[in-house]
């Protein structure tokens, strides 16, 4: 008997035959491995691809991940260090080196000292200030005492009673001794007798209060004193007390 041999249908697939590999899957594995290598930047990553029947092992060294992270950090650090530093506020050399302007101390200006002013000399003055009156104008011992006697120690300065011109300087006779006559140009003259020393000369211009001589006892005198007379015209003696009083000078008589 003839054994029936199995009939193989040409439409039935042969399971014993080896299936062909699918090239599309392999290509995808290769692309994925390359992308992973580029992203990590590591040359030590090995990607092994196998056929369709084997698992796809990815051989990555144990420290690949840490090296990739270190490389990434190094790359970021380089970028950060290359960035320009933030601009710090600059200081102008002129303001930095300039020394601070010192504060001016305002000092009060000293008040100007008042100028010494001298009072103008009056037109008429006392011929011997501070002297004591020993005799006034009038009758004395039966004769006219034609002036006022003023006494201070011998040598006391005698002053012109008013401005004028010296008309006589020397011994006037008649007991007057050394005398000075001053013409005041207004019709009046003053006479200064018994001087110990004369300090002016005839024709000299004098001012009120100017020293014209010094007290003494020349001529008919019992002691040092000034015999002072006022003449309304030469040798026309008048009382000196009221005359001088009307001109602001009190002789004490």
Would you summarize the structure shown here?
With 253 residues, this protein is of the alpha+beta class. It has helices at 23-40, 64-82, 93-97, 240-245, and strands at residues 46-47, 58-59, 132-135, 138-140, 143-145, 148-151, 157-159, 164-171, 178-183, 188-193, 195-198, 205-206, 211-215, 226-232, 237-238.
Q: Would you mind describing this structure in some detail?
A:
It is a single chain. The chain is α+β, with helices and mostly antiparallel strands. The chain has four helices and 15 strands. It has helices spanning 23-40, 64-82, 93-97, 240-245; strands spanning 46-47, 58-59, 132-135, 138-140, 143-145, 148-151, 157-159, 164-171, 178-183, 188-193, 195-198, 205-206, 211-215, 226-232, 237-238. Strands 3, 6, 8, 9, 10, 12, 14 and 15 form an eight-stranded antiparallel sheet that branches. A three-stranded antiparallel sheet has the order 7-13-11, with no helix packed on it. Strands 1-2 form a two-stranded antiparallel ribbon.
